[in-house]
Amino acid sequence: MLNSRHETPRRHLTLFNKWDNDIEVSVVTYCALIDGLSKKGLLQEAINYFRTMSDIGLQPNVEVFTALIDGLCKNICIEAAKELFNEMLDNGMTPDKVACTTLIDRNLKHGNLQESLSMHERMKELGMELDLHACTP
C-alpha cells in the first residue's frame, strides 16, 4: 500500500537513476519521466531532470518542453511556464499547438485574459490556428 502520492514516482526515480548508468537513455526516456513527474506534482524533480539533460548530451525537444510547460501550468506555475516557453523560442524551437493552448487555457482559467490574447496572437504569428481544445472550459 502506498504511503503517499509521491512514493511510487520516487521509487521509479530510484530505478531510473540506477539504470541511467547501465542503459542508454534518450530524449524520449526523459520526456516520459518529466511528464510523469509533472503529472504527479513533483515539479522540482521534473525541472531537475529537464536541466540535467544537456549535462549528458541530450537536447530537450519540443515535446519535452511541452510536457514541462503542461505540468507547470497544471500546478499553477504559469509564470515559470511562460519563462520556459520563451526559453524554447530563444533556443530556436517552434512550439507546438499543445504548448500554446495550454498557456491560453491556464491564463483564461486564472483570469489573465490579456495573456491569453497575447498567446493567441503569437500562435497566429507562428501560423497556428486556435481550435476548440483551447476554447473548452
From TrEMBL:
The PPR repeat ranges on this chain: 26-60, 61-95, 96-130
Top-level taxon of the source organism: Eukaryota
Keyword Phosphoprotein: no
UniProt-listed InterPro entries: PPR_rpt (IPR002885), TPR-like_helical_dom_sf (IPR011990)
Keywords for this protein: Repeat
Pfam families hit by this protein: PPR, PPR_2
Recorded family membership: Belongs to the PPR family. P subfamily.
Record-given protein name: Pentatricopeptide repeat-containing protein
Organism encoding this protein: Rubus argutus (Southern blackberry)
